[in-house]
């Protein structure tokens, strides 16, 4: 089995933020597949888009353009906690030397009322580097990554339904 090496990477995907967004969803850092396609939650096994589509009772967006339209229509912004870090593949547990994004700057001219973090590592990093700089409540949700195989799709959907409270 080939061992992946740890690389220091800079975030290259722009935040997807609309002024009329009601929520901001933050991951940790883009996976190799997301970096390859140039948009968030790009791995076909990641359940992020399935979960959002299910709770919003809409068709699962497939292309990057469909995903952007889906987010805009539903008043959801998307970004990551980290601007750069050392990481092995897509393993959040391997993250070292994290440098956070400036979350406060991108949300200042929006209608964002709440921040959601996708996974414990995103939550941990947000609390450590961003919490005192952003004056919004946040909720840590379970990871939609295929690595979180202990949580089935139905359970993820039930946990993510809280987002609906902020989109009204």
CATH architecture: 3-Layer(aba) Sandwich
Any idea of the CATH class?
Answer: Alpha Beta
Helix content: 25-40%
Low-confidence stretches: none
Strand content: 15-25%
Q: What summary fits the major beta sheet?
A: 4 strands, parallel
What pattern of helices and strands is seen along the backbone?
EEHHHEEEHEHEHH
Q: Could you give the count of β-strands?
A: 7
In quaternary terms, these chains amount to single chain
| Radius of gyration over C-alpha positions, nearest whole angstrom | 15 Å
Distance between the termini: 48 Å
Structural class: alpha/beta
**Count of the domains:** 1
Overall shape:
globular
Q: What is the count of helical runs? A: 7
How are strands sequenced across the largest beta sheet? 3-2-6-7
Q: Might you state the CATH topology name? A: Uracil-DNA Glycosylase, subunit E
Average pLDDT, all residues: 93
Structural notes for this entry:
This protein is α/β, with parallel strands linked by helices. It has a single domain, classed as Uracil-DNA glycosylase-like domain (Uracil-DNA Glycosylase, subunit E), CATH 3.40.470.10. Helices cover 31% and strands 24% of the residues. The strands form two sheets. A four-stranded parallel β-sheet has the order 3-2-6-7. Strands 1-4-5 form a three-stranded antiparallel β-sheet. Helix 2 crosses helix 6. The radius of gyration is 15 Å and the shape is globular. The mean pLDDT is 93.
């Amino acid at each position: 089995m080939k061992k992946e090496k740890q690389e220091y990477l800079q975030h290259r995907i722009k935040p997807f933020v609309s002024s009329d967004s009601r929520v901001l969803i933050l991951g940790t850092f883009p996976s190799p597949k997301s970096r390859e396609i140039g948009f968030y939650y790009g791995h076909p096994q990641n359940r992020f888009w399935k979960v959002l589509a299910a709770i919003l009772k809409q068709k699962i967006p497939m292309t990057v353009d469909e995903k952007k339209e889906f987010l805009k229509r539903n008043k959801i912004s998307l970004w990551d906690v980290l601007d750069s870090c050392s990481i092995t593949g897509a393993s959040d547990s391997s993250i070292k030397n994290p440098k956070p994004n400036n979350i406060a700057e991108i949300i200042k001219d929006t209608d964002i009322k709440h921040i959601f973090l996708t996974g414990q590592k995103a939550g941990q990093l947000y609390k450590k580097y961003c919490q005192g700089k952003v004056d919004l409540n946040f909720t840590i949700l379970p990871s939609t990554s295929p690595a979180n195989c202990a949580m089935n799709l139905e359970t993820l959907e039930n946990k993510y339904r809280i987002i609906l409270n902020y989109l009204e």
